[in-house]
Design a protein that fits this description.
This protein is mostly helical. The chain contains 13 helices and 4 strands.
C-alpha cells in the first residue's frame, strides 16, 4: 500500500505491485506501509486462491468460451478484475488451463473409482500441491515472493533488469542474502509494517499510528479549504476528535459536520471486514463445489506430509527470514504505540492536578495575606492605645 497517488488529487494507492512502483511516485512526498504474511501460509494461499478463482470458469464448456466471455466482460467493465492483479494475472490463467485439461481427461477416460482423501493430492481433479511447489511458474512467482516484492524484483517489476536479477538469484541462491538485506532496509524505512497473522492487532496499530495522521491531515485540509479562522485542535494518538470535518455531501459552510475518531475508524473497519469475509466465504464455497470432492480446509492441511512442509520452508528461506525480521519491527511498533498511548493521557491528568493544586494554594495565599493585613492593622491600633495610656 502506498500513499500519494499517481494522479492529481489521489492521496492513497493500494496495490499488489512491488516496490519498484516507487519509481513512479514522488519519493519525498510518499510514505509506504505494508503487511507481511507467514511464508507457509502465503504459499498455501497462492495455491488455493489460484485454484478457487480458476474453478469459477468451469461453468464454460471449453477455454474458447472462457476467452470470449472474458473479452466481453473486460470491454464493458471499467473496474479492476482479479486477472489484472499480480500475481493472480499469471497464476489464475495457468491454473485455469490446468483445470480444464484435467476435466477434459476425465471426460475422455472416465471418472476414476475413487479420488482419495487428500485434497492436496487429488491429481484427477486439481494440480497436486507437491507438483505446484516444483513447477517453474511457482519457483518464479510464488517462492520468496514477499522478499522479491519488497525488493522490487518480481516478474511484474518496473525495473528493466528485474527479471534478469531475479533469475540470477534463483539460480545462484547464495546471492539471495543481498536481496534480503535490501528488503530488510526497505522495511526499516517504511512508515508501518503489519503482520497478517496478527490481523486485528495490525489494524488497530495501523489506525492509531497512521490513521491518526490521516484524520489529522484531513482536518487541516478541510479547515484550510473553508477559510475559517478556527484553530485545528491538537490530536493525541489515542483519541482524535475532528469535529468540523465534512463528508463529501456536506457544504463548505460547516452546516453538516461529522466526528471521526480512531475508535470510529476501527468500528467501520470491523463492519467492512466482516461483510467482506462473509461474501468471500460464500464465493469460495460455491467455487470449490466445482472441483468437488477436493476441498481446501484447515483440517485437510493437517494431513500434508511433514516432508512437503519442510520443502516449502526450504524453498522460501528468504521469506522466512524476512518474516522473522518483520515480526521484530512489528513488536517494536507495538511497544512504541503503547508507550505513546500511555504518555498521551499523562500530561492531561498532570495538568489537571497542577491546576487543582494552584487553585488550592491561591486560596491559602489569599487567606494568609488577608490575615497578615488584619494582624498588622490590629497591632498598630493596639500600640497607639497603649501609648496614650502611658502618657
Amino acid at each position: 500500500m502506498i500513499s500519494c497517488g499517481l494522479i492529481p488529487g489521489c492521496r492513497l494507492l493500494v496495490t499488489h505491485d512491488d516496490y519498484s512502483m516507487m519509481s513512479k511516485l514522488p519519493r519525498e512526498k510518499t510514505s509506504v506501509v505494508t503487511i507481511l504474511r507467514d511464508p507457509i501460509e502465503r504459499v498455501f494461499s497462492a495455491y488455493e486462491f489460484s485454484i478457487e478463482v480458476a474453478a469459477r470458469f468451469l461453468v464454460h464448456p471449453n477455454m474458447t468460451s472462457v476467452l470470449k466471455m472474458s473479452n466481453r466482460v473486460r470491454s464493458k467493465n471499467g473496474g479492476v478484475s482479479t486477472l489484472e492483479i499480480w500475481p493472480w494475472k499469471y497464476l489464475v490463467p495457468w491454473m485455469r488451463e490446468d483445470l480444464f485439461s484435467r476435466r477434459d481427461d476425465r471426460k475422455r477416460n472416465g471418472a476414476p473409482f475413487g479420488y482419495g482423501n487428500d485434497s492436496y493430492d487429488m491429481e484427477e481433479i486439481v494440480m497436486p500441491l507437491h507438483e505446484f511447489i516444483d513447477h517453474p511458474v511457482a519457483v518464479d512467482i510464488v517462492h520468496n515472493g514477499a522478499t522479491f516484492q519488497v525488493a522490487g524484483l518480481t516478474n511484474n517489476s518496473k525495473m528493466r533488469e528485474a527479471n534478469q536479477l531475479r533469475q540470477c538469484v534463483i539460480t545462484h541462491q547464495i546471492l539471495g542474502k543481498y536481496v534480503l538485506e535490501v528488503a530488510k532496509k526497505r522495511l526499516d524505512d517504511m512508515l508501518y509494517v503489519g503482520i497478517t497473522e496478527d490481523h486485528r492487532e495490525s489494524a488497530t496499530m495501523f489506525a492509531n499510528v497512521v490513521g491518526a495522521q490521516v484524520i489529522s491531515q484531513l482536518m487541516a485540509s478541510t479547515v484550510n479549504k473553508s477559510n475559517t479562522s478556527e484553530q485545528v485542535p491538537a490530536f493525541s494518538n489515542s483519541s482524535i476528535d475532528t469535529t468540523g470535518v465534512q463528508d463529501n455531501n456536506s457544504s463548505t459552510d460547516g452546516s453538516k459536520n461529522e466526528k471521526m475518531t480512531v475508535g470510529k475508524l476501527m468500528d467501520t473497519y470491523g463492519t467492512c471486514i466482516s461483510s467482506l469475509r462473509s461474501s468471500q466465504s460464500q464465493r469460495r464455497t460455491a467455487s470449490l463445489k466445482r472441483i468437488s470432492p477436493a476441498n481446501f480446509t484447515k483440517e485437510a492441511r493437517r494431513h500434508i506430509p511433514d516432508a512437503l512442509l519442510k520443502k516449502i520452508i526450504s524453498v522460501n528461506s528468504l521469506d522466512m527470514e524476512l518474516y522473522k525480521y518483520a515480526k521484530g519491527i512489528f513488536q517494536k511498533q507495538h511497544q512504541l504505540m503503547e508507550h505513546r498511548l500511555q504518555n498521551s493521557a499523562a500530561p492531561e491528568k498532570w495538568q489537571v492536578t497542577l491546576t487543582n493544586i494552584d487553585s488550592s494554594w491561591t486560596l491559602i495565599y489569599y487567606l494568609i495575606f488577608t490575615f497578615l493585613i488584619f494582624f498588622i492593622c490590629f497591632y498598630r491600633s493596639a500600640k497607639r492605645r497603649i501609648s496614650k495610656i502611658k502618657i
